Amino acid sequence: MTVRLPELPFPLEPYGPEAAWTYDDGVLSVRAGARQDRFVPPAGESLEPASDAPRLLGVAPAGDFQLIARATVGFEAPFDAGVLYVHVGERQWAKLCLELSPRRPTICTVVTRGFSDDANSWEVEGDSVWLRITRTGKAFAFHASLDGERWVFVRVFALGTAQESGAARVGFLAQSPTGGGCSVAFDSVEFRGVAPQDLRDGS
């Protein structure tokens, strides 16, 4: 199944567990199933096939870009999340999440290079926030925003080789690691073919 969003210059395809992705009137919606997550425990346990979550991804055009969307999450259980996701290899991927972590909605990030790290940034009010993935040169950056205008820097990182990062798949993910499922909606989707001039000035 190929999904085309008019806001994006590339098609999207589903990965991971089967999920009913829908797009209507500018809103992309999905529901993660029970115990669905994408995480490689840093203590050393291997990634089992069940440790996966529904993703909708496409190959971004070459060069710098920004992928932006507002995530609204129907929180039901700890660690439910709506996610912007970037993938360069089987064990090389990253998540920018609006996550219930574990009692308050929080901006969280995971960068996986063989194993996953996991970091909380700050708590937010409510169930919606704007998320942004940037590719700038060989690096990726994560930002979040309460209004879609002023962007707060979260982290910048390398992922894979220059060739791998240049062919990255990016898109959307929903997860419910401990619960019975989680509904997520993405709206205000936007793609920009440039990176911000300064990752830390709020632009």
From TrEMBL:
Pfam families: DUF1349. Transmembrane segments: none annotated. InterPro entries: ConA-like_dom_sf, DUF1349. SUPFAM superfamilies: Concanavalin A-like lectins/glucanases. It comes from the Bacteria. This is DUF1349 domain-containing protein. The lineage of its organism: Bacteria, Bacillati, Actinomycetota, Actinomycetes, Kitasatosporales.
